[in-house]
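Q: How would the structure tokens look for this protein?
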Amino acid sequence: PDLHAAATMSASAASLLAQLTVNAEKLCTQFQASRAPINDGNVLLTDLCVTLEACLRLASKNKPSDTKDYWLFFADCVGPESPVFKYVMNKANNRTVRGRGRCFLRYGLITKTLAEHIQVSSMVKHLTQKYYHRDSIFRHEGSSMKLVDILYNLNEVDFELDGEVCLDEGWPAFAIKSFSSDAGSPVSPSRLGGSATVPAPNVFLTTSSLTSLSGGLGSNTSSSNLSPQRSMDGDSTCSVSRHSVGSALDADYDRVRAERDSLRAEKDILLQERKDADKAWDELLTKQKEKCISLAEKLQQLQRGRDDDSARADRLQALLAATKQQLAAAEAQLQAAPDPDQQVNSGDADQTNADPAPDVENQYQQELAEAVSKRLEAEARLTALQKDWQTEREQHRAQIAQLEAEMQTQAEQHSALNQKLTDALVELSQLRETSKLEMKKVLLLLLFALPLLPPHQQAPRMTAPLTPYFFETITIAMSASRCQGCRRGSYGHTAENRASDCR
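A: Here is the predicted structure in token form.
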């Protein structure tokens, strides 16, 4: 079949996309004017959903019903492990395929992922051929890109929709009939609240932005150089401009590839740093566990030593009490003993040579001194033990405080290391998003500038390492530039071989 005819957008698809563009622009205008989230009370939301549903059902091989609708296509594309599939299937109030498809659209509007899901699904060629005819939007590259571009523009609008509404019979129909004069949108003062978000970046380029980008490639590249009608004249100025466009595109492509390589190198460095940080963190945890175990053992030793000291002190107290009792008994015996001076016999002179009475008082005094010395010795030992125990307890307290301070310092260092790693990952994500955007810009420039190059320059460009998606897009765009008379590239004609009826 003719590629040019296959690439032509059907009238129904063009009409639906035009209506969807108008609805999306009105919705964006209303949101920018009120900065209030769009909810189920907005009539424009219903119009947008109905038009979008018509676009998704256009040229479908399955007649829309309760058991067959566009949800089957998207369910096969996203897969059962995706969050959107689990969200839709967990909604018990939507029992039909029609209701689940509408729930899928509302979920995408709320999470700002609808454009991404539809873009990814449109690239699954075998599924689009399975579920849609040739006149479908998904079977036409230009119309699918336009649909995705419209949905990406809706990412700057905040939606606040009820997730428990039954969508099997139809869309929510409780809109407030109060319209503004500018956008024709309903105003719901009771349900709309103030909320402002940063608009999501649109990764697709419009025709005006593409023209402005191509105008900055060089001073010799202008709108007259890119005009297909003037390129047919074959003069030297047009040839020079085509060479300048090709050189500029080559330079941009090389620059983007260099940036991609540098980003990959930075990613490898960050991954290595993350591995080193994880290794250091594991070592730190191991050391902390070992310190905690040793500290627990020391505490147990201190507790056992404290118990031993307490038992020793109790034994010394019992010994001291027994010594005091013995001392009291000895004092009592000493008081009960008779005075030796009263035992002197004054009348018997013959008893002067007799043996004297035993010195009982000296004996008791000696025993009393020994008991007192033992008591003092026991008290001195008890005091020394208490002093040693107090000193050892203070030392252990100081060691515990030092270990706690070290653990706090290590925790702060780990927190700082985690913060540094988080900042590095955020910076890497931003660099990757910037690189993706630049790569898409260059590829779109290649898409629109390749037909302007001479045939001897088109062949090397077609062998560039492009993805199948952009290779097919470039092939369709080049087929549209072929001459309808001689079926040759219209930009490859020269003054010698150009036919009069092909001018």
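Residues 1-7, 175-238, 349-357, 459-464 have pLDDT under 50 and may be disordered.

Residues 236-336 form the longest helix (101 residues).

Upvote if useful.
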